[in-house]
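Trying the structure run again after the queue cleared.
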Amino acid sequence: MDAVLGSEMRLLTVLDSQTPSLTRFPAQVAEWCYLRYLSFRYSKVRTVPNSIGKLQNLETLDLKHTYVTELPVVILKLQRLRHLLMRRCGNTPYPWFRYGFKCLEGIGALQSLQQLACMEASDERNSSLMRELGKLKQLNKLGILKLRKEDGRELCSSIEKLTKLQSLSVTSANENEIIDLQPLSSPPPFLRRIYLTGHLEALPHWMSSLDTLTKLDLKYSQLKENPLSSLGNLPNLVRLKLLQVYGGTKLHFKANNFMKLRILFLGPFDRLECVEVEKGSMPCLEELTMEGCKLMEKLPSNIEHLEKLTVLKFIDMPDELVKKLRQDGQDDDYLKVAHVPEVYYGYRRGGGWDVVLTKAFV
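Done. Tokens:
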């Protein structure tokens, strides 16, 4: 790598080096004062040197899927920095094996910052750090990991000041830690994407009024109430992912709800036995995935009325349901999905990321 990074490259403005074999931050990079974009994504880099403070023109620092967990204080001198991206996943889809970076005290000094993802909030200085976020008035994307319940109020106070925020991702400190976003009284007016991972005592009261919301992911929420009644009237919701959100036995999609929804993911639900879809619900739905609903042995009711459905996936679903898709075409459930061009069933290999799918109709 060092041989490639010669002095003739000092006028370079973009360096995108997705090199898995790279183990350290190349020393020469700090001399390239014209760099605006710097990425070592997917490398094995673990530390960032203080010399990065020389890159006064840097606008994007992408260290996603590296092993960097801390940044030097000199980062705060990079006043043109717009995108600070650091996130690493573990070897399983389990969300609490995800890592960001330990937030710097004084991060509010980065006044040009537009994207900050993901910052770890598990720190004794959390209250002051949450307040610092409110100074980042240009922020349109914010990702927080390891949030504690007691820091929810300060986070909400800062979010209210981020009027340009479009994407919000929050993961709790652990599976039993509550995400408390109820104190948020005035959500950002252009909020389009929300990803919440962790225990919710209830859906945030303001969520059902987000007319701009297009994507919503709720994971491990442990809600006592069916969330669909609060979400069904979101006028622009296009994608909805519900993963271990609700402990009930039935999900009911009412008529004239989810009118623009195109992609729906459900599961795992440990106690779910049936999904009821009223005629007139989800008229634009194109893709439906159901995973890990071990007690659900029948297809969603009225699935035949989802006329725009083009992809249907069943992952780690009961054999009683899947075998109906392998029969000779005479079974009622088989006929209900005969209009769907692509129907798949399968499983996750070893409980990990990889999904093995088989096409049902060949």
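The mean pLDDT is 91. Worth checking whether this holds up in the mutant runs.
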